[in-house]
DNA sequence: TTTGACAGTTCTATTTTAGAACTATAGCCT
DNA sequence: AGGCTATAGTTCTAAAATAGAACTGTCAAA
């Protein structure tokens, strides 16, 4: 597999996987959504090697998911903040958290609970159809080739 | 990082990442949702090495995401079918496809279109709150420690 | 009896990751 | 002035994972 051009495959899943499809990147994004922004903070909460952290942050900046913003002149220091493109990854992260809650739980219960400020309740995320609003299930979906399809890939 | 015990971390995202948090596994799951079931079919559509395919399929079976079902006695041959636990990964896959459609598209348009059989329309997936039904955004969510939380992880 | 399909396993070379040490800038303390 | 600390990285070597190709075993069909 040519991982270096995976983001140009005629498949939206491949393109997403090219950007966020590895363990460390997903864990870094979790920290971002928990409002972690600084190199040392990522490093100490994840126990990731500094080398890989540096490399992954660069990649996320390169793909426009994080912005590297100075928070101190002299000495120049930067923090990493989610862009809108990065914030839009929220459904992916939440879908993964929800699946983990549902299928990988233990007797101690959930690690985190999520409150929807808008309605004030603890919630779970639900994926619905943009057209009819009903919850979506794999078996109710039919896939068609779209205009950007080249070959026999999804 | 102790990747071998990531599925026991007190964090639902980590536990999910432990199971589906790598490139090949996500691409294999895409094929599963496109109704690919057999070793040779996965191998030829993904161009994954047979070694890794074998290893990943075993892992997905071990975690209860695929079932290895015989479709021929003599010679014994098996195919790999999504369990309910595997089908429940659909929101993760669809959220990734949707993000790719939105943020990684090119001038050729979408590779695939999705039709909701229930309502008959082409749709996008939307993540909503289970309690009030409104679309969810990261900034409207407040996180609380749940009973299964041990330390300062999500 | 030979060929081909299918579902793997085994082997070596290359790439990626882990782990630790090192660099650079600047503020603060004595 | 000299040394300590904080932050944000870079560099180095060893270990682990992946790529790529060849090989194995079972059976059916020609």
TrEMBL record, chains A, B:
Residues 11-108 form the HTH hxlR-type domain. Gene3D superfamilies: Winged helix-like DNA-binding domain superfamily/Winged helix DNA-binding domain. The keyword Flavoprotein does not apply. Signal peptide: none annotated. Keywords: DNA-binding, Transcription, Transcription regulation. It holds the Pfam family HxlR. PROSITE patterns: HTH_HXLR. The keyword Transcription regulation applies. InterPro entries: HTH_HxlR (IPR002577), WH-like_DNA-bd_sf (IPR036388), WH_DNA-bd_sf (IPR036390). GO terms for molecular function: DNA binding. This is Helix-turn-helix transcriptional regulator. It comes from Bradyrhizobium rifense.
